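Re: your question about Annexin

S., sorry for the slow reply, the queue was backed up all week. Below is exactly what I fed in.
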Amino acid sequence: MSYPGYPPQSGGYPPQAGGYPPQPGAYPPQSGGYPPAAGGYPPAAGGYPPAGGYPPAGGYPPQAGGYPPQAGGYPPQAGGYPPAAGGYPPAAGGFPPQAGGYPAPSGGFPPQAGGYPQPGAGGYPSMPPAGGGWGAAPGGSGMPGGPQQGYPVGPTPSQPMPSYPGPSPGGVPANPQAPAIPKGYRGSIKDFPGADPLRDVEVLRKAMKGFGTDENAIIELLGNRTSKQRVPLVAAYKTTYGKDLFRDLKSELTGNFEDLVLSMLKTPTQFDASELREAIKGAGTDEACLIEILSSRSNAEIIEINKVYKAEYGKTLEDSISSDTSGHFRRLLVSLCQGNRDERETVDISLAKQDAQKLYAAGENKVGTDESQFNAILCARSKPHLRAVFHEYQQMCGREIEKSICREMSGNLEDGMVAVVKCIKNTPAYFAERLHKAMKGAGTKDRTLIRIMVSRSEVDMLDIRQEYLKTYGKSLYTDISGDTSGDYKKLLLKLCGGSD
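Result:
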């Protein structure tokens, strides 16, 4: 394909009515060639192009259907336009002439290196340049003073999107995609702007020096830092003072406040590993804690917990669980601690119906219970898929899956399976229930309260607060205030983030 009015012709530019004028000392006039007009091509020693590259100062003369003149035109740059792979502008040194005139690039936009297309069929879309024109930086200017950095990614306001022929090397990308909108942050603790670990450890040191401890300074500092801002304080403290921050805090603080402060200085993975260790060791096992952590963490988090647990305690988490539990409950925990759950977001409804039928056949629809079938589906399938399975199950047999589990199982296995189902169905509602149970009645399960408030404060605490208020008619903030006291209460309320 060739441009209208530009047939290849050996020896110079093709004749074109209304074109450029002949000038003394330059190209000889030809029949039907360039009529005289002020501001045309200047003579240049040795022929075309003029020294310093193309175009000459003053810019392009206007052409029908083409680019309107701009003050100053395209500014000349040292050595001409910089090269761009496969397209506009051509190689350094300006637009060199080629035998036979301008080349006719196939497909039009963009032109091949060495040629410059004129507006028309196959060339640039006929639209006036705005905001600097083609070649200007996005939102920038084609005038001198701003480097030219390729094509703009879209039209300026009040200008329609041009219809590009499609993506090509060095060309304008077709249909640029807007960045995905991130999901809103649902934690109650946010990064403190400008936090400096060296300044923060100085505050902690002053709070612990001398007679008495300034607990309020510790609460204000730790209660306004995210985990990634708190954890570096341990190394910064040792670097600055040559002392262990954990040891100094233990010597100054006591009780639940001490436990809460030390928990907040561990990484989330270290904290989970230490909580699992506490749940397993000693007389009795905190089965609810094991289920809570293993059913609510992602595969990547569980794999990291396994690594830290092995490094800290010298044996694998699976071995610890196996030696402390038994039967189908042991199998449930071992399955969960593999960190191998399907994490795809897509849901196949036909497969969800099949799984619902399998669960029905393994429980309600037979004498006895096939616990292995429940284990296989609850521990391996993705959470969105399982939510669909639970819905299909209820539609099919008229009973919620938790009720069926309670009818078919007992003891730790029943509690464990129900907890897994609740956590998958609605994680914030599951944690709201755990918090309510930790505080209601005589005595408070402080370990559970501390663990959930610390571990969920940067994940979904705002959602947990909503579920708590909806389910129990009181805000989580109010219940924590009524069930705890002193510095311990103040720091817990910082993690809570506010009343609803």
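The two ends are 70 Å apart (CA to CA). The mean pLDDT is 77.

Happy to talk it through on Thursday.
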